[in-house]
Each structure stands twice: as structure tokens, then as C-alpha cells.
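stuck on whats below:

***
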Amino acid sequence: MSPRSVLITGGNRGIGRAIAEEFIAAGDHVAVTTRSGEAPEGALGVAADVTDTASVEAAFTTVEEAHGPVEVLVANAGINRDTLLMRMSEEDFSAVLDTNLTGAFRVLKRASKGMLRMKRGRVVLIGSVVGLYGSPGQINYAASKSGLVGMARSLTRELGSRGITANVVAPGFVRSDMTDELDEATQKSYLANIPAGRFAEADEVARVVRWVSSAEAAYISGAVIPVDGGLGMGH
């Protein structure tokens, strides 16, 4: 396959960075959006805010000028503001939804223009086990991630005949600076619920994203693919 134009939102650290590096290693032309414009080596960095439509438009224009129409979109940008329901403000709720869910809508709508003209495309929405499994203190985050499932499935029914697929990759606990800083007792309590007995590595999620964006996965669309060591059992 010839190199494709790949855009990953929130691609400067963690899972997003690992996804970018995976596509770079596969020979694709990769761009990442971040608030700062920073990017992994080999990727085009574009400063963008997924909560701002004009910023998203400007980012796509830059990417298209450099790499051509976006053929693979990975909507990864996200935030969390965890707190129990009775302490959660409306701003806490709406801010998470605006970034994680409406932000995905903004980039998806813009990317679909080029995909429709090309009559091909891959959309991967980065969800979470929390979206279907639930988690105390994360009503806003869980709502935003479960909403991505409906988005992917509706897009599949709307644009599936145009050679465009849309899937959700749903990670569980991924080893990061945040999990490394948890005390031993907390880590053990989390691990006790994971049949695999360990946290995921970011590149394990990234490889699934790359695969579901490949020609090998051309007949998979509207799926939720868990990468959680058995934590959610697909729920």
C-alpha cells in the first residue's frame, strides 16, 4: 500500500504518541494535533483545539496541504475531570463532553469530506472500557466514551457504502506516569480485577489501532474492540 495521510488528535504523549509512532513505522504520512503543536519525531505537529471548529478547520487545511486528504482519522484527544456525582459541576460535565465527544464529532465531520471524495477512509475513535463498564466518579467521562460507540455505529450505517469504516478501540488501564505513581495497594486493587494481571502498554493499544485501520480489517465496522486484558469482557 502507498503511504496514507493519517491524522491523530492528541498525539504528543501516551496512547496518542504510541499510535503516531506505529503509523510512522508503517510508512504512513502522519500528522498529530496538540494544543502546543509538539509532535513525535517523523510526524507533522499542528497546534489545534478540538473544542474550536475554526481551529479544527485550520488544522485540517495544514495537514491536507502537507500530506493530502486525511484517509485515516484517529480521534484520541480527551480529558477527564473525575469526581463523584454530587460534587460534579455542570462545567465539569460539559467540558469533558465537549472535548471527548463533541471534539470527535468536529474532526470526524471535517475528515469525512475528503473521505467521501476519495470513496475510502478509516475512522478510529479511542474509547475506554469505562464507556460500557462504568466507573464511580466518572459519569462525565463514561458518558463521553459510550457516546463514541453510537457515533461509530451511526457513521457505519451512513457512510459504510462509501468505503469508509468506523470503529472504537476501547483500552482498559494503560501503564503510564499516572499509574506508575499509584501506591502499591491501589495498583494491586486495580490489577485484581484484570484477568491478565497487568496494565497494558501503550504500544499494545497502538498496534490494534493500526490493524483496524489496515486493508486486513476492511470488513470490520461499527465494532468496539477492547484492549483491556479481559477487564470489561467486551461490555
